[in-house]
Write a structure and sequence with these properties.
The chain is an alpha+beta fold. The chain has 2 domains: 125 residues, Alpha-Beta Plaits (2-Layer Sandwich), CATH 3.30.70; 45 residues. A 5-stranded antiparallel beta sheet has the order 2-3-1-4-5, sandwiched between helices. Helix 1 packs across helix 3. The chain is elongated, with a radius of gyration of 27 Å. This is Large ribosomal subunit protein uL10.
């Protein structure tokens, strides 16, 4: 059954809104994946705040116009699953990379970040980005390291003095 014009406009508007607020997008070919696996993928995507949508290529080209992801228009061919990362730039890449390991028929076509189109083979560049919490903990560790080292240094001075005094005392006892 054909989608009426109003339905097409609604789809374009919805995908455009998602693309406008997204940090990255991953495109995949889902042919051959059964519906049970796709349902599980959609559930995981909702948990990780990843917007998944299958859109006709002509509608997708219209939807990404004027966004950072306009560059994906050149790779739109065949059935395409769009996965937009809404909070964490690597969330969609990690999700689809893990899913493709479990499903041989699932193929990652391309990805885009900040207006730059990357091939599907470069999924690791995006998937290996730390999550927000991981990045914050790494930053905190980096900031805390000099302070910790300074505290250890200050603590080491009295310890050295105590060991030196104990060594002198032991020497005097042996000499007496």
């Amino acid at each position: 059954m054909a989608i009426q014009l109003e339905g097409k406009k609604a789809i374009v508007a919805e995908v455009n809104e998602a693309a406008s607020g997204a940090l990255s997008v991953v495109l995949a070919d889902y042919r051959g994946v059964d519906s049970g696996d796709m349902t599980a993928l959609r559930a995981k995507a909702r948990e990780q705040n990843v917007y998944l949508r299958v859109v006709r290529n002509t509608l997708a080209k219209r939807a990404v116009q004027g966004t950072d992801f306009e560059c994906v228009s050149e790779v739109l061919a065949g059935p395409t699953l769009f996965a937009f990362s809404m909070e964490d730039p690597g969330a969609a890449a990690r999700l689809l990379k893990d899913f493709s390991k479990e499903n041989d028929n699932f193929e990652i076509k391309a990805l885009a970040v900040g207006g730059e189109l990357l091939g599907g083979e470069q999924i690791d560049r995006l998937a290996k980005l730390p999550t927000r919490d991981e990045a914050l903990s790494q930053l905190a560790g980096t900031i805390q390291a000099p302070i910790t080292k300074l505290a250890r240094t200050f603590n080491e001075v009295p310890s050295k003095v105590t060991r030196a005094v104990a060594a002198v005392r032991d020497q005097k006892k042996e000499a007496a």
